Amino acid sequence: MKRRCGQHSHRIPSASSSTPRTTRQGMSCPKKNSTSSGASASNSIALRFSMKCERDAQPRTCTDVSVRDIVAGRYETTLFNGATHRRLGDVDGMRERTLNVGSAGKIFNATGWRIGWVTGPADLVAGCRAMHGYTSFSAPTPFQEGIAAALDAEPESFFTEISDTFAENFKLLGAALTKMGHEVCCAAGDVGGYFLVADIQSSGMDGLEFCKWLASEKGVACVPLMVFYQSRPEGVDFNCTLVRFAICKPKSTIEAACLKLTS
């Protein structure tokens, strides 16, 4: 069954999803479902996540000291519609078992730098530091210094301005796609991040066909969300019509795209 825009929801882990071998649980926040979707997790989601863990307080749950939670908060500074970011580690009982992952590349719109950080209890962070040395080996020191300086130098208004710009871009692009007859996901809900997702079912094409058509006929590029999904077995009907547009652009770029889409 194809999941429509209005049916997107956070999937809160339950006792049945934990086994005696469970040691980690992950939550992408403020993004939900995946880093691609464009919706933000509201304050209630973090609370529901922790409450579910406590309610399921069996041998294997979030509140079990041997089970850790890893939260990706890459878009915490780009929330729209007055939404606020609630870290899972800020919820009572979760701080000592939660790692928060941040991304300077997302905050400063410099994803090519690949600089980020992990915050949490000292023992968990120490484990991450040890592991990091054997995976990515090392990050470019000049970039680390640059990000540290930027975090210290930029006023709070910098982050507000980014959110305001992306929010306006979301509205402009959403209006253009709606005019084309497509459904904009989470148009009236908590939204944040770099992307807008639309359901183009009304076009009669699947996501890949639509993206090729749009680039060829309108000169606007987007990404079919089917490329983020695992391939379905032969014979399984799966026609994904969700596509993703980037809104992390100057307003003039979005306005030019909207003009092409509606002309």
Report on the architecture of this protein.
This protein is of the alpha/beta class and 263 residues long. Helices cover 33% and strands 13% of the residues. It has 7 helices and 8 strands. Strands 1-2-3-4 form a 4-stranded mixed β-sheet. Strands 5-6-8-7 form a 4-stranded antiparallel β-sheet, covered by helices on one side. Strand 1 (24-28), helix 1 (43-55) and strand 2 form a beta-alpha-beta unit. Helix 5 (156-179) packs parallel to helix 7 (251-262). The longest helix has 24 residues, at 156-179. The radius of gyration is 20 Å and the shape is globular. The chain starts with 23 loop residues before the first strand and ends with a helix. The relative contact order is 0.14. Residues 6-16, 29-34 and 55-61 have low confidence and may be disordered.
Helical fraction:
25-40%
Order of helices and strands: EHEEHEHHHEEHEEH
Q: How many DSSP helices?
A: 7
> Total number of β-strand segments?
8
- The pLDDT mean sits at 76
Main sheet: strand order: 1-2-3-4
Largest sheet: 4 strands, mixed
**Beta-strand fraction estimate:** 5-15%
> Regions with pLDDT < 50 over 5+ consecutive residues?
6-16, 29-34, 55-61
Overall 3D shape: globular
Radius of gyration computed on alpha carbons: 20 Å
The span between the termini is: 33 Å
Structural class: alpha/beta
What's the gist of this structure?
The chain is 33% helix and 13% strand.
List keywords for this structure.
8 strands; about 260 residues; 7 helices; globular
